[in-house]
Amino acid sequence: MVVGLTGGIGSGKTTVANFFRELGIPVYIADEAGKRLMLSSEEIKKEVRELFGEQAYPGDEPDRKYIASQVFNDSEKLEALNNIIHPAVAADFQRWLSRQNAPYIIYEAAILFESGGNEKCDRTILVTAPHDEKIKRLQFRDNSEIEEIEARMANQWSDEKKLKLADFQIKNTDLALTKSQVEELHEILLNSRKN
What we know:
- By secondary structure, the protein is an alpha/beta fold.
- The chain has two domains: 1-26 and 105-190, P-loop containing nucleotide triphosphate hydrolases (Rossmann fold, 3-Layer(aba) Sandwich); 31-99.
- Helices cover 56% and strands 11% of the residues.
- The longest helix is centred in the middle third of the chain and has 23 residues, at 75-97.
- The protein is globular, with a radius of gyration of 17 Å.
C-alpha cells in the first residue's frame, strides 16, 4: 500500500515522515530523490542545461539558487523543469518500491496533488500548520525573507484545496500531538490492510 504524504512548505512533512520511520515504515522522499538524480543522472544534467543554459550546471553540481531564480516567477519554466525531474523520480520510486517489504510505505512529495501523484497512491495524508507558524519555521530553517517564502507558497495549492483530496489530515502544531496522530494513523493503516 502506497500512502502519499504531502503538505505546504513549512508544514512539517519531514517531521511527520520521520515519525513514520520511527515506527519502522519505509519512507521515500521525492524531493531528496530529485536532488540525488540531478547529481547523478547525465540525462537530467543535459536536459536542465538545455532548458536554463550552462549556468544551471557550472560544474558537476546544479546551481540550485540559479535554477530556483529561473522558475519561481515563471510557471512555464517550472513546469518544464518538473517534466524533466518527475518522470525520473517516478522510475526511481518504482525501483525503490520493488525492494520494500512492509505493510505500507510512505511516499512524501511537496506537490503530490499538484502533480497528480496522488493518483498513484492508495491513501493520502495532508500535513497542515497555521500560516504564521509555517513562515516562522521557514525563516528559522532557511533564513529566508518573508516575501520569498510567500512567493514559494503561492506556487503551491492551498491547504483548503488539498484537504478536499486528502484521506487524512495531521495538524502539526505540537510535536507530541503530531506524534500521537501519526501513531493513531499507523494503526488505522495497518488495520485497513487486514480488511
